[in-house]
Amino acid sequence: VETITTADRMTALVSDWRRGGLSIGFVPTMGALHRGHMSLVDISTGRADRTVVSIFVNPTQFSEGEDLDRYPVTLDEDGARLREAGVDALFLPGREEVYPGGFSTRVEVDGLTEGLCGAFRPGHFDGVTTVCAVLFGIVRPDFAVFGRKDAQQLAVVRRMVRDLRLGIGIVEGGIVRESDGLAMSSRNRYLSPLQREEAAGIYQGLLRVRRAFEEGVRGAGELEEAFRSETGTRPGLRVQYANLVDPDTMEGLGYAGDGSLFAVAVFSGDTRLIDNILLEKRSGSVEV
Ligand code: AMP
């Protein structure tokens, strides 16, 4: 795996590949890689001739008082994992490469960014869409892979690519979980052993929601109640939001239908964890 630190070199390398008729997949990350990230890498290497992974802790997507300054950095381990996975290039730009002096553009997606995380992290998604637009411009991939763990981010990036006609495919990867169900996240390492144990309650809560849905519960309030009935038994967990939404528009729903998304953000101490579950009717089941 070649490590590339400048935008010009990254663009030149990808242009060479493209001239050679090769397809290019791209996985943007903030590093501290875990199996969730690696599942996206595997999707890319399985579909494309060349895979680029970026590691850039993007300052513009962090709000004041968030964990930008202590975000985990594990570059040696990350490099080893990417090498093993057969990644072709690791793009590791400094801030000046992504946001050079005079950088003045912000990409903002309306509507989809208002609810869920957008309501609690002002400017977060503007930071995400802006950095994705820059990274897409540098790498110019055929497709980029994003995890469904960050369901709102996935929907927002999809919309940006569609609206701006960037011509980049957005491929989604499923949520990779620890053995107790906790969604893998670079931020899980902030958790103390007790917090880590309690955090499994988030997935247990989501499973309760799915079970309720499968038993015929449709009301958003009742589904939220199902979630809180689980997290409420764990004193260290504080629910920031637990909402039923449309997975494409991120609009809040009063009633769940086939394919609705139930998305949550939960604090354990200072650590903010997000997760979600798709509510799908089992094939063959009959609405009564
Ligand atoms: P991050 O490094 O947190 O910016 O995440 C980079 C990419 O990895 C995003 O597309 C995330 O949605 C994805 N990702 C993070 N955690 C997981 C997970 N547990 N399962 C699948 N994808 C994930």
Topology of helices and strands:
Layout: E1 2-4, H1 7-19, E2 24-29, H2 35-47, E3 50-55, H3 75-84, E4 89-91, H4 95-98, H5 116-120, H6 124-139, E5 143-147, H7 151-163, E6 169-173, H8 193-214, H9 220-231, E7 237-245, E8 260-268, E9 271-279
Parallel strand pairs: 1-4, 2-3, 2-5, 3-4, 5-6
Antiparallel strand pairs: 7-8, 8-9
The protein binds adenosine monophosphate.
Adenosine monophosphate binds next to helix 2 and strand 5.
Structural summary, described in words:
This protein is an alpha/beta fold and 288 residues long. Helix content is 38%, strand content 19%. The chain has 9 helices and 9 strands. The strands form 2 sheets. The chain has a 6-stranded parallel sheet, with helices on both faces. Helix 2 (35-47) links the parallel strand 2 and strand 3 (50-55). The termini are far apart. The relative contact order is 0.13. The mean pLDDT is 97. The site of adenosine monophosphate has 17 residues, from helix 2 and strand 5.
How would you sum up this structure in a few lines?
The chain has 288 residues and is α/β, with parallel strands linked by helices.
Please give a handful of descriptors for the protein shown.
globular, 9 strands, 288 residues, binds adenosine monophosphate, alpha/beta, six-stranded parallel beta sheet, three-stranded antiparallel beta sheet
